[in-house]
Amino acid sequence: MRLPPDAVEDVVQETLLAAVRAMTQWHRRASFATWTAGILRYKIADYYRVQKSTVMRLEALEALHPDQTTDHIVDVRLILDELQPQYYTVLRLRFTDGLSFADIAQELGVSLEAAKSRYRRAMAHFREAWDA
Fold it and tell me: Which one of 28, 48, 118, 123 is most buried, by most CB atoms within 10 A?
């Protein structure tokens, strides 16, 4: 299963963190590579589960606020629409829902470090688009 290039770093990080946390469960019945490959497959599937959920949430959010047409909101909306779903989600959770990074990590099913990293990348993409 293939991942978008910008998601690889997060998924690999989550895989390595999960492997470290579960190290006591590796009983050497399989090679370490085989064991971590299983964790990686699970993390990739988890990534796509979160993406599917994100798309459904985006559609619901758009249905709730279709008539906001001021220039500023339109500009922000256009930028948000261009962001990848994982970046849009982390910004929405942080700014719209007001969640802490720990809560965002829990909501996304990622580590605290991955949530912060995703937020920084989302903000960088947003700023780049805003300044363009």
Answer: 118
The SS3 of residue 3 is: coil
Token pair recorded at residue 78: 């256009």
**How is 19-88 classified by DSSP, letter by letter?**
HHHTGGG--SSS-HHHHHHHHHHHHHHHHHHHHHHHHHHHHHHHHH-TT---HHHHHHHHHHHHS-HHHH
Q: What fold, for 5-131?
A: Arc Repressor Mutant, subunit A (1.10.10)
Measure the CA–CA gap between 49 and 70, rounded to whole angstroms. 34
Q: Which of 125, 43, 31, 25 is nearest to 81 (CA)?
A: 125
CA distance 37 to 67: 47
Query: For the chain, what percent of residues have pLDDT higher than 70?
Result: 78
Annotated domain spans of the chain: 5-131
| Confidence category of residue 54, pLDDT binned at 50, 70, 90 | low
Residue for token pair 């490959």:
37
If you average pLDDT over every residue of the chain, what do you get?
78
